[in-house]
Amino acid sequence: MDLGLNGKRALVLASSRGLGLGVAEAIAAEGAMVMITGRDEGRLQAAVDAINARGAGRAHFVVSDLGDQATPALLEDAVGKALGGLDILVNNTGGPPPGPMAGADIAVVQRQFEMMVLRVMDVTARLLPAMREQRWGRVLTIASSGVIQPIPNLGLSNAIRAALVGWSKSMANEVAGDGVTFNMLLPGRIETDRLKELDAANAKRSGRSLEEVADMARSQIPVGRYGMVEEFASVAAFLVSDRASYLNGGMIRCDGGAIKSV
After folding, report:
1. What is the pLDDT of residue 55?
2. PANTHER family from the xrefs (predicted)?
3. Does some domain include residue 2?
4. What is the pLDDT along the chain (262 residues), one digit of tens a residue?
5. How many domains does the structure of the chain reveal?
6. Do residues 171 and 58 both lie within one domain?
7. How many CB atoms sit inside 10 A of residue 82's CB?
8. Residue 170 CB contacts under 8 Å (≥ 6 apart), including other chains
9. CB burial class (10 A; 0-12, 13-18, 19+) of residue 232?
10. Element (H, E) at 120
């Protein structure tokens, strides 16, 4: 299936590794120009070199930190210079430290909220007007299955990411008439460095071995395994494509059926 992404211009936040990088690679494989972001210049350069070596879409990078309030303006400027505009925005952020919500340090909550919610809103607000003017755009926000079914010991993530649900749905209602869609993609347990870190934290907290923790988690997933980054990224590439023009305001699960609700 031709997704209609050839020549499109995409910005993928927090994309030097993990899900963000996987999504950037999938979009570039369809012929799009992508800009990836992150704090590690060496990792970004290596990722860009690998994408460009494949010879489909072209990749660029900008070193940036979503913890810095100057980052949205930096990204807006970088997109204009490197891509000449934008068609696709994939909002993605790192996750907060694991732990219960009860007793959470309010200063930590505030810092994480600024990075995971306010920066996303700011970046989107800066880049959205041009999409509306050109009458085509895709905004995809990666969150977590925890916004539907809260995940034990990920209290901050559950709470903070939930704010993006109301925001994304509100935006979807307001701008779809201008040809811009807003959707959310919710990963379950996808095999990434972040997942390994969370499994390790759960093992330490519970006194179980890492393999016991992973086996228990897999047993709760109907497909019986963790997902692969490539599987998740393929869904993302479709959601930002021309083919997904009638998908708007949704929360799409990519979790192997782990969420128990209908």
Report:
1. 85
2. 3-OXOACYL-(ACYL-CARRIER-PROTEIN) REDUCTASE (PTHR42879), NADPH-DEPENDENT REDUCTASE BACG (PTHR42879:SF6)
3. no
4. 899 999 999 999 999 999 999 999 999 999 999 999 999 999 999 999 999 999 899 999 999 999 999 999 999 999 999 999 999 999 999 999 999 999 999 999 999 999 999 999 999 999 999 999 999 999 999 999 999 999 999 999 999 999 999 999 999 999 999 999 999 999 999 999 888 888 898 898 889 999 999 999 999 999 999 999 999 999 999 999 999 999 999 999 999 999 999 8
5. 2
6. yes
7. 16
8. none
9. buried
10. helix 119-134
Write the DSSP string, 52-65: HHHTSS-EEEEE--
Residue 1: predicted pLDDT: 84
pTM, rounded to two decimals: 0.95
Tokens (6 digits) for 7: 């020549």
Between CA 139 and CA 149 the distance in angstroms is 23
Exposure string over 149-188, b if 16+ CB within 10 A, otherwise e: bebeebbbbbbbbbbbbebbbebbeebeeeebbbbbbbbb
Within-domain flag for 1: no
Instruction: Based on the fold, state whether residues 131 and 43 are members of the same structural domain.
Output: yes
Same domain, 103 and 181: yes
Largest CA-CA distance found in the chain, in angstroms, rounded = 55
DSSP H or E segment with residue 230: helix 229-239
| 8 A C-beta contact, residue 258 and residue 188 | yes
Is there a single domain that holds both residue 139 and residue 93? yes
Q: Is residue 4 part of a domain?
A: no
Structure tokens, 107: 């200063």
Residue 260 within a domain: no
Record the tokens describing residue 5, joined without a space. 């992404």
